[in-house]
Amino acid sequence: MSIRIGTRGSKLALAQTSTVCKKLTALGIANEQVIINTQGDTATGVPLHEIGGQGVFVRALDDAILAGTIDCAVHSMKDIPAFRPNGLLTAAVLKRDSAADYLAYHDTLDAVKVIGTSSTRRRAQLLRHDSDLSIVDIRGNVDTRIRKLYDGEFDAILLAEAGLARLDLALPGERFPPEIFVPAPNQGTIAVVSRADPSLREKLSCLDHSPTRTDVFIERAVMEQLGGGCFTPLGIYCREGHLIAEVLSLDGTRTERTETEVQSIEQARDAGKQLHSRAKDLIQEAYRKLGIKNER
Fold first, then answer.
1. pTM surpassing 0.85?
2. Is 186 exposed, middle or buried (0-12, 13-18, 19+ CB in 10 A)?
């Protein structure tokens, strides 16, 4: 029986799903692609935090899995919320691509004054680097953002380097080292989420990259302790057990940061708890200023 694989309809989502489909086909596992529309794709005129955060890209696909419309879905793992519905599991985590952010510009770096990004984390990190920058909200898929850049709406836009690579796009710009501009948790990682079916999980497990799974689930354990989702400016990055995590104020003027070696999920939770204790005021401040109820 063919595995029905759900995906958003954006070029990037389709490229990521195509990677998964090709890998399964090469292993002799029949599959088919099903496009599912999400609120995050249709409500492009408002900031993400006003329509529910990154989870809006995932919710419709979750519902389709639970309803039996599809068997699994392919996601940028950074879009998957910390807390998940019952009946779903992360069946496979592909080998991580670049976790770095990339500043794409059309003139020169010295001429960059106005930068487009919809991420509170990227905004805060940019302002920490240079408080004179003007950071303007931008939504839409990668093609839309690039068009706005070259139409002159922005001097630069900040994107995930992995997304550009998956779309085979080469743009002039600068790569931001993830050790300094700490990325969103799980950035650069493709995940396959499925219903909790042992036989389906066994088929999809052939795609799993164990070292990446370890690193990204360490990041998720820290994220769960911090809360905040995409509302709080926070970056979490783990590579081979070396964890860097930071929480920033919305204006980038204040930061709480930790850097440590982590060998287990429990150690990651402990690191997250300690950082949350130090950064609690920043997290609550972000929710208050954005007008969002904090459940923690």
1. yes
2. buried
Residues labelled catalytic = 79
Separation CA 91–CA 84 (nearest Å): 13
Note whether 229 and 55 are within 8 A (CB): yes
**Nearest C-alpha neighbor of 197 from the set 92, 88, 75:** 88
User: Which residues, 6 or more positions from 91, have their beta carbon under 8 angstroms from its beta carbon?
Assistant: 72, 192, 193, 194, 200, 201, 204, 205, 208
Type of residue numbered 262 = V
Give the 3-state secondary structure percentages of the chain, helix then strand then coil, rounded to 5: 40, 25, 35
Q: Please write down the long-range contacts of 131-135, taking CB distance under 8 Å and 24 or more positions apart.
A: 131/251, 131/252, 131/253
CA distance 198 to 9: 28
* Under 8 Å between Cβ of 287 and 293: yes
Tens of pLDDT, residue by residue over 35-50, are: 998 655 544 444 444 4
Q: May I ask the CATH architecture of the domain 101-176?
A: 3-Layer(aba) Sandwich (3.40)
| pLDDT score recorded for residue 293 | 65
